Amino acid sequence: MASQFTISLDDVIAASRRIAPYVKRTPLVRSSFLSDRLGTNVYLKQEILQKTGAFKVRGAFNKMLTLTEVERAAGAVAVSGGNHAQAVAYAARTLGINAVICMPENTPKNYLDATRGYGAQIALVPTVWDAFAEADRLTRLGWANVHPFNDPLVMAGQGTLGLEITEDLADLTDVIVSIGGGGFMGGVSTAIKGRLPDTRIWGVETEGADCMARALAAGNVVEMPAITSIAKTLGAPAASEETLELARRYLESVTVVSDREALDSLVLLLERTKLLTEPAASCTLAAAERLRDRFGPDRHVVLILCGGNIAISDLCSYVPPDPK
Length: 324
Description:
Blueprint: H1 9-19, E1 28-30, H2 32-38, E2 41-46, H3 56-64, H4 69-74, E3 76-79, H5 83-95, E4 99-104, H6 109-117, E5 121-125, H7 128-140, E6 144-145, H8 152-168, E7 174-178, H9 183-195, E8 200-206, H10 211-218, H11 241-250, E9 251-257, H12 259-273, H13 279-290, E10 300-305, H14 312-318
Parallel strand pairs: 2-10, 3-4, 3-6, 4-5, 7-8, 7-10, 8-9
Antiparallel strand pairs: 1-2
């Protein structure tokens, strides 16, 4: 049975102080185009400009900076389909720790190349379920497990992004956040609700990577039969009991959008804001389109663009040239 844990606003504040020398404070910028399009005030939290191109370094550093000397000497192991892999590899190199990343065979090549580029070893296995099994095996041998979402230190580190939003936008009313396993959502929600409790937080997943929506509907954790969405970085095999409880506590709802909606939003963001995201981030705009009736001219809505690590070859295959 998984151990129970909680995180608090104080945990996120402590994480912010701990990781400050190692991560960027990313910009929060109002988009006139999207504000006009959606009839509200839309702001983009540009976490795509973070080191390694995604929010994951926040949690990786917060966890790894708290490892004991014995744990550091043993090395760190993590499971990832992409962004967490790069984050742990980068943090490990920065802190002088050996790292092994367990990754499924369908991981895009750009993620594999970047992870190796940061100096980590890769254990390539058939599926994400096999990756978690291999990480568990290495953990039993003494490696420090940097879980991608179900760890209070990782979650508190991710929550530092939420602190930045509250500090940069006092009029904040709504936040739309992507959900993989739920750690990012949980950390960000803890920070924002702790500072601005009336803020509404809306979750979003893509079809085929929607473990949290399924869990909320079922009333318990549900294991995905397969990850079929192109939003690979949302592809957790299941939420955890802890992240499911945080979703119940903090979220207004979870909107599940199609891959097509996420890709259309990706193209719109690139063409009109000049920001290249991955589908796991552009899906927040797709959700905002679905939820537009819930917002009005007096609302201040933040879309968190959580990552931008998409290979150009994948982008071209997802978005074929216009035949005209």
